[in-house]
Write the structure tokens for this entry.
Amino acid sequence: MCASSLTLARIVERLKTVCAGETRGNADLPIHQVASLQSARPGEIAFLSNPKYRKYLRDTRASAVILHPGMASALPLSPSGEPLLAAILTANPYVYYARVAALLNPAVRQAAGAHPSAVVESTVPSSCHIGPGVWIGADVSLGENVEIRAHACIGAGVVIGADSVIHPGVSIYPGCRVGARAILHSGAVIGADGFGFAPDFDGEGGEWVKIPQIGRVVIGDDVEIGANTSIDRGALEDTVIGDGVKLDNQIQIAHNCVIGEHTVIAGCVGIAGSARIGHHCAIGGAAMILGHLEIAPHTEISPGSMVMKSIPQGGEKYTALYPLERHADWLRNAAQLRSLETLAQRVKTLEQQIRQMEAGKS
Amino acid sequence: MCASSLTLARIVERLKTVCAGETRGNADLPIHQVASLQSARPGEIAFLSNPKYRKYLRDTRASAVILHPGMASALPLSPSGEPLLAAILTANPYVYYARVAALLNPAVRQAAGAHPSAVVESTVPSSCHIGPGVWIGADVSLGENVEIRAHACIGAGVVIGADSVIHPGVSIYPGCRVGARAILHSGAVIGADGFGFAPDFDGEGGEWVKIPQIGRVVIGDDVEIGANTSIDRGALEDTVIGDGVKLDNQIQIAHNCVIGEHTVIAGCVGIAGSARIGHHCAIGGAAMILGHLEIAPHTEISPGSMVMKSIPQGGEKYTALYPLERHADWLRNAAQLRSLETLAQRVKTLEQQIRQMEAGKS
Amino acid sequence: MCASSLTLARIVERLKTVCAGETRGNADLPIHQVASLQSARPGEIAFLSNPKYRKYLRDTRASAVILHPGMASALPLSPSGEPLLAAILTANPYVYYARVAALLNPAVRQAAGAHPSAVVESTVPSSCHIGPGVWIGADVSLGENVEIRAHACIGAGVVIGADSVIHPGVSIYPGCRVGARAILHSGAVIGADGFGFAPDFDGEGGEWVKIPQIGRVVIGDDVEIGANTSIDRGALEDTVIGDGVKLDNQIQIAHNCVIGEHTVIAGCVGIAGSARIGHHCAIGGAAMILGHLEIAPHTEISPGSMVMKSIPQGGEKYTALYPLERHADWLRNAAQLRSLETLAQRVKTLEQQIRQMEAGKS
């Protein structure tokens, strides 16, 4: 992952159409990499977003820093008043940093063409990369510049939009759709059967009868899906992942879920069947959402929290967690949980007794 | 996934050996797909299992509905008393629906024969499908009509029963056994080493000594295993998955577990080593079961619950969950948990004081 | 998995350099396998570590047992005082058992050489095994005797130390490093992009801007990584897994984490970004550790516990779990949790009232 080198002035020029920035100090400084304020070396650019880190400005070895115009006065000066640190002033330093990082570290693209070891049963654009050992079934439709890397399996009838990257070992089941500019990481499984069985038991005999899963997975544009994440196909309707959704690793999304646009879901989350998550939600790692619930847009769920009921009103944060304790303390406190209702009842009784005693006195 | 078309009468005829049904209304209506009452279009058949959805019968656009004979009176009639909706009456509408769905959406079978890119080091029946890039090691035994789809890896000495389907990218380690009619979804890993190490540390030095995992995984008939689920091989004895067990995605089953027949386990569940789960249990998503526990048959575990002790008596539901709250409420309530034992002690002291005061009065 | 056969005397001789043992009884007994005291058959050797299992010594069918010298008096004798059970006396019977098990069940090594179906774009030592369908990118460096089993994908520039085994279907992203004697199980994904996005939203529009993940994953020596476990590459710095770390299945380790030497992590654990776990920690299954926390060396975390704050002092066990209850009991007790702060307040009020009443009396 080698990085190219650009001057501050050139960086501002290159990014001006997506986010505005203004240089301070020596705009001709060559920058070849991003770094944090604390670990940066000369030739690297850092960013300051949280004011509590402004103390690191004085001692950073970075050649430049990205920060908000309101923080420009915190830039260190020499005794003679010369600026010691070049800067780019911008309204959203973290986003600007992300864009500079992408400029200096452009994604490595694989060469167009199909590796001779690939098995390709469809016609694909010549701009696509089809890696070693890839299998592409019949009636698959790929957009321009799609990369299907080593050993990925693309089932019959799958559609993938332009510029998407499918990493090694991804498996997409027949009939599913992936939008443009998607990134699917290794081990992701898209479109396996949802978990649907009807119980046909009586007395001792019987079996679970499998319900065919005839929906698809339909994934919007600009979606990233992490390693070993699985998204099941719908039972009847489709499972739908909205535009701009970002899914981390080891996530399970069950059949018929609908995930709204630009929602982010951290690792190890499980979402049960037919849940509907609004747009712009943030679901913390290892949270769980039960089936058939509706979560309003802009809801935040704390990590590790089990969501057992719908959240009709958005814009708030919800939590369901037992707080961490030393094990010895936990043993004592958790034991009381099993008689918490009794404890509440005893307090109520005490309150009545006190009231009676007070009444008796008067 | 195109569906064939059958008349109601033909459906009842085809299913009569597995479940009895009786038509009402026009038995010659052609049906080509299943759907829900609310989303069905003409030519589709829906089902009514839960009486609370009977209100949807009047407005459904379905051509027919599957329901219990006791609900037949709820079928809508025209003003002149003619039935407006054809029906199949049956004792278990949900199971009947599952079987109709399977009839109309037969599983897509891959053609028999081995793809030239497959590496097959064993003799396999000519009725089997061996997909592109598949690797089958030495001494593997496959039943008739087994499908090993693209890129699956079947280790030496593995045995797989007739009519099983192994989806792309599944990995089965040497020596493991899978029964007949199994479905293993992409990313499933069967038979990796169990997590067994002996601590050999003294003072600063030392290491974890790996304990060879010499058991197998032995999977019964009619088992379905979800995407990215892993089942470890036994340390000494085998890890055993009973007949008819259904495992969802992202499940971890550790070494030496025994899962009883027809137990269903939802996504993201973890079961630690040597746990024994009875038959016909239902384990909710993201539940966890500690090692060496025994769970009685017909036990239900709520989603997200940590099972820390054996459950000797079956037929009940168990739960271990902190309930969801707005984060601000949680902060206040959870803080009190850390002094719950003290609170209980204070209530006890109050009760003693009240008793003494009452005694003092008399 | 056939086992060789060795006499007790030969076992002690073979292991004497790594752990000392001394035979009791017939040292010429041939031993071909390890087993538990309860399930052992003749020709097998068991071990006794926990004194509470000494009762099984009398009835075991094992030919020999490994135990501590202090337990030698518990070995059964015939009525005439002859030892009925041969033994190996050693300071740490469990570790000795692990080493005997490894002696009798040596790991099956694959033959050196590259399978013709493998795509190898680097020069690799002739002592390495490169299995069917493997893809190895450019500039990869493998140590001697490395095994890359069927269908594993090794990205450009990866370095893997001597004697490591990469199981079928593992994916290692470009630039990552794995030490010597590693074992990576099927479905493990090493070096996928960390989950890093900067929010660029205003009003209705906007998007998450991907932050390039330019760090690597650097894995030490003697590390084992379980099936379907994922370890993300660092954002700027590397994600680091120390020597001797053992990771079970289905684990998620996010970008920039540092896991100290010899720490063991059980299945289904999630560790969020930039967390630092000390050496010799033990993290129970399905535990979660939030981002940017520091966990001191030798800390133990109970299974299923969410760690929400740093643990600065090691050597203790921490827990965060709601205890399991019958669902009906849970409904009553958990409901009270939502008003626990109010309950605490009511108790405080009662205490004040009592104090006033007592004061009023005197």
Observations:
- Chain A is about 15% helix and 25% strand.
- The radius of gyration of chain A is 28 Å.
- The mean pLDDT of chain A is 95.
